[in-house]
Amino acid sequence: MAQTNYEWQQLALTKTPLAAQIAEQCDLPPLLAQLLVHRGCTSLAEAQQFLKPQLQMIKEPTALHDMAPAVDRLMQAIEAGELITVYGDYDADGITSTALMVETLETVGANVNYYVPDRFKDGYGPNQAAYQRLIEAGTQLILTVDNGVSGQEAIAYANAQGVDVVITDHHSLPAELPEAVAIVHPQYPGDEYPGGDLSGVGVAFKVAWALLEEFPTELLDLVAIGEIADVVSVAGENRALIALGLQQLRLGARIGLHELLALTNADEAHLTDQEVGFQLAPRLNALGRLQDANQGVELLTTLDEDRAKQLAQVVDDCNQKRQALVQEVTAAALALAQSPAQKDQPVLLLVGHGWHQGVLGIVASHVLQATGKPTIIASVNEGETVAKASGRSRAGFNLFDALDAHRDLLVAFGGHPLACGLSFEVAQTDALQAVLQAAATAQQFDGQTKPTLTLAGELTAQELTVDFYRQLQRLAPFGPENEQPVFLVRPQQIGAVQTMGKQQQHLKFTLPTPAGEVAVVAFNHADWAPVLQAAMPELAVKLDLNRWRGQTSLQLLLEDQRTTGPVVEDARVSRLIAPMFAETAVYVTFNQQLRENLTGNAAGQVVSAHQAQTMDLTDQTVVIVDCPPDLATVTAIIQNAKTAAKLRWLCYSREPLHQAGMPNRQQFVALYQTIRQQAVNLNQMGSQLANYLRVNNEQLIFMIHVFLELRFVTIKGGVLAPVDEITRADLTQTMSYRQRAARLEVEQVLLTSSTAQLQHWVQQALAN
């Protein structure tokens, strides 16, 4: 069996009275109702609220620490006409936070501008040089969004210049906090926000609400983008913020987003959280990775349609460049991850030279997915000694805790348990690797274990429909604490496996269903093609919609696969040579003479068809050496080999029949009429007779055997003569004819078929 990327774990969903009630009252498929109960719904009312989030689920702004002093200082600045600079961040959460806060301050009459730091010049968070430039340009109050808690030096500088700083942030808190006028943060020590895993834009939204003194529904579209992009929990009020934000996005009211969505494959009127996460967010993130993220704020806030189109194209072009860079750096990083120095490390620290520093986080995610190991990707530019890095982790290893106590080794650091950004002197690389290894030991994390993939249930072919997908979307938005369900599908057959994409890095195939074929797509897994072609797989899939030329159809996104039977290897040959029998295996032969020749000259066992049908073939490599007399015989062997590791097909045929084929009825009639007219001396006239009938000698001999079996003719002394009186009979029912037909059928299936056809036929035989 092929290796899986994950350890599969199937939920033990049960049919409870509550699940049945939810299914009936909410018109939900039973499987999804059971999933709701498993995810914590304890009543019908809870399920109804979950399926239709309401404004009442969103908490008042006053629940956040320091909200009152933050609003007071902002209102003081607004009334005094002070210049307020919104200091943002260059990712999608930071860009949406900045746009939201700027719009809010403009609405209440503030004198406001904004600054999104340059990833490469300023780095993440407050930067003293940037603060100095802003203050010298007239800034009198700095309002941070999606950053600030790690900016002690820059904020101390601002204070020294007589400029106040109001922090709104959500990142993990360092041991020492800056001296700011206010720190609005959901995890402030001793004043934690109740049940809220808000992103930066979520915190900014609460400040905006408090400033406006009314609920700003029109800003929820920005909230949805930032929260989805930052992968925060979608339980509790975040679920309502995102769900209601998606409704706002579907209205298309924000010109820049409308133009950007027009360049994607997303359907704006039916936009989903998945499309925001995989279409919108990456494009906004691409700006900060490669260019100027301030353009993203302009895109989100502009009212000029022409400018919106221009900026949308800039963003989309930037995203395409980002994709190419990610492929290039990921290939180099994966090669480094397999090096002897890294192969046994539980946590990877991969340092490259000249890797584009804007894509390090995405590359870290790709390496994490490919290896299962928490990964930090770092890059140092030529002539520099400080490497910039991004890290991504998985359940079981807290990346922030691993590094937080070792800030002495770092130039800059910030982040979350599962993601971080940092920079460090390249000379500290070995020390950091040792710190990560020690942290893995302390956290009891084994980098060799596979991450867990939870399967929500099994779907039949009948359930693979657009209607089921739409019912599933009622459980959206998906994310942490409400993960998009992954389902098990056990196909009886799969269509031809094809690669696709610019680099042929993706896979696509189809599954038959009663409603028609459903496409299955595996992104960045062209390496799965041989496995999917060679064995019947079980599939772990997410459900998605494909929109193409006005048509909407269900498609499945393949998360993982595992085979449930032996790998089918096409090794068909036209001649046999000794190296083919060097591997220890069970060699099945149908020809007795061949079996005798191989016995003692092949590694492993050389067995007959009968033996292969009855012996234990578990975990064995079974080699079908020659062609069987019929398909039934080899089918019986296949069915006994369901627990074998591999089925290798040599299918040698000394005298294949498929080129000659089966003589047709007219040729049989012509032969009989010729014999009725005159007996034929085969020794003298055999070749001429074959030429006359347009058959070869082998076919002629076969036809004569059929007539002999029917007693239509006799042969004496090489003379073929008719019988005076014959009984009408069906020549296709003779033993000779049936054996030849069986051999031709065998050759069609096992000799002349394509690899895909052979593997499909074997998989069908295994499934029966």
From TrEMBL:
Domain Single-stranded-DNA-specific exonuclease RecJ C-terminal: 570-762
Domain RecJ OB: 457-560
SUPFAM superfamilies the UniProt entry points to: DHH phosphoesterases
GO term, biological process aspect, one: DNA recombination
Domain named DDH: residues: 84-226
Source organism superkingdom: Bacteria
Keywords: Exonuclease, Hydrolase, Nuclease
Gene3D superfamilies listed in its UniProt record: 2.40.50.460, 3.90.1640.30
Span of domain DHHA1: 345-439
GO molecular function: 5'-3' exonuclease activity; nucleic acid binding
Pfam hit, one: RecJ_OB
Family the entry assigns: Belongs to the RecJ family.
NCBIfam families for this protein: recJ
Protein's UniProt name: Single-stranded-DNA-specific exonuclease RecJ
Naturally occurring in which organism (per UniProt): Limosilactobacillus ingluviei
